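Training component of the fellowship. As part of building independent skills, the fellow (R.M.) carried out the full modelling exercise for a liganded target. The chosen ligand was adenosine monophosphate. The inputs are recorded below so that the supervisory panel can assess the work.
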Amino acid sequence: MSKDSILVINCGSSSLKFAVINPGTEEEKINGIAERLGSSEAVLRWKINGEKGSQTLGLAAHEAALEGLMGLLREEGLIEGISAIGHRVVHGGENFSESCLVTDEVLEAIEDCIKLAPLHNPANLTGIRAAQKIFPGLPNAVVFDTAFHQSMPAEAYLYPIPYSLYKEQGVRRYGFHGTSYRYVGQAAADMLGLDINNSNILVAHLGNGASACAIKNGKSIDTTMGLTPLEGLVMGTRSGDVDPNLFSFLNKTLGYSLDETTDMLNKKSGLLGLSEMDSDCRVIEDAAVEGNEHAQLTLDVFCHVLAEKLAGFAAAMGKIDALVFTGGIGENSSIIRKNVIERLSIFGFELNEKLNDETFRGKSGVITQEGSTVGMVVATNEELMISRDTQALTA
Ligand code: AMP
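Fellow's submitted model of the complex:
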């Protein structure tokens, strides 16, 4: 059997998402998730050939989940075909501008970045170490969410605060969703017949977490997320930009602690906090369609912030070859896309309502009129990108 597949792992603190992908044919042979890790109700769920399966894991953490996964891959006859493992890592700080093979030095550098991503990087490291143990014969590669944005110029990544905080503590804008931007930027250029090295592409990655990126000549020159994934756009439960003095205001007026305000901005704000309904865009859209004015206002705030950022990026790029929507909301919500594109008419965007309404559920394509500045949808595929990087590094 030819070793043509990559096992892609995306490890969270209590979950482990996986997929086995052939980066050459782009075939996804299996995908799934091990959930509720660390509890006695840990469970492994998967989908293979369109069929779903599941298996309880009992009291299991990441290592036991990978053992369960190994058994499953063996049963399904997939294990022999796997040549390497690719791991998603959230924060690479300034240490990593591209994907790389796992070595002791690389693990140390990821550990160094824990202070920048205290929730994510430890979980990512747990996944890598467990994979090294459970699959000792396979090489491991890491693909960072931040790496793509290391090309940003200093004027885009520096915050106007004392410079020593950047030099000594690494306080700067890093940006996230980089793997998605790299995939979507290249795919959009390919679909439009553009040379990526001579192109100006705006991407709005709108999922539960949301950010936007200006990609000039295939490189990120600006993005909305910052030191952490809280900055920038309105998200499902995250506020995006607010006045940083909110911390002291809420402390003085309501006695909120640092942790309480941090929790509020990350978990109780965004679409959820403003709408007082749900973090899911679909619920708010349904309410707005039924005439709920507050739901409509929530959507308008979301689109106002996004359009403002995209307009700023357009100025920085000097030209727009395409505006690309991706992520759960970007790929599925014709309502949000219409709202945003109409706000950007000054840049020559004219929506094609029919194409916009017909583009959802993984479909990619242009959604603007002929002669308009191009607006389009590209379904993102971060797992495929991770598998491609891993194959290139281990070939
Ligand atoms: P993601 O994080 O990329 O998986 O995106 C998840 C989000 O996509 C969900 O929270 C929904 O708000 C949003 N979403 C998915 N389908 C739709 C849809 N048909 N219309 C609007 N939003 C959607």
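The panel noted the following from the submitted structure. The longest helix spans residues 293-317. The chain has a mean pLDDT of 97.
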